[in-house]
Amino acid sequence: RKEVEQDPGPFNVPEGATVAFNCTYSNSASQSFFWYRQDCRKEPKLLMSVYSSGNEDGRFTAQLNRASQYISLLIRDSKLSDSATYLCVVNPSGYIFGTGTRLKVLA
Amino acid sequence: NAGVTQTPKFRVLKTGQSMTLLCAQDMNHEYMYWYRQDPGMGLRLIHYSVGEGTTAKGEVPDGYNVSRLKKQNFLLGLESAAPSQTSVYFCASSMTGGLYEQYFGPGTRLTVT
Q1: Where is mean pLDDT largest: A16-25, A89-98, B97-106?
Q2: What letter does residue B9 receive in the DSSP assignment?
Q3: Mutation for testing the A interface, residue in B33, B104, B109 having most A CBs under 10 Å
Q4: How far is Cα B74 from Cα B91, in angstroms, rounded to an integer?
Q5: Is B12 in contact with B113 (CB distance < 8 Å)?
Q6: Contacts of A43 in chain B (CB under 8 A)
């Protein structure tokens, strides 16, 4: 089993839709969790950290479920500009990256 | 603040040639990292450093060497390039490890023919 697993997608959704991604991790000792966004041929950029109680930033909501060992990212009211690859990152004793989920928002 | 910068942005090497990739950060971060990203493989850690003068191996260190002589710079060397090292290389830095997010440079696209 991979340490961090994501559905590669692509998720094709219409503008205005709500879309959710999950990311599962295998190391129960993981202490910090992040979602990064990566545009084609660009560097990953931090979207949001994921806190135990869940957190929201505008249209984006991140959740952590320690019992089932997954984190989730919910995007509401999708925009064309949300089209990108979303990477989850889990940190047990070093940053472990998922391979990413591709999102395409369609007009 | 420039953040994390990388030079060069693009490079084509012939098999057996050597080169050095330079990463610089102006955020006074202690930790720095070199990753490679290949299609379908995600980001894989090559080497990292937890402070000036220190280096450590990551997941895929073979064929690479690193140096961190100054806190703000982290160099990645390829002594004898191979086609398998064709990839996009990203440098990153973080305040410390663990709880803090990483900041990435714009990447270096390397092709080895």
Answers
A1: A16-25
A2: S
A3: B104
A4: 8
A5: yes
A6: 90, 104-107
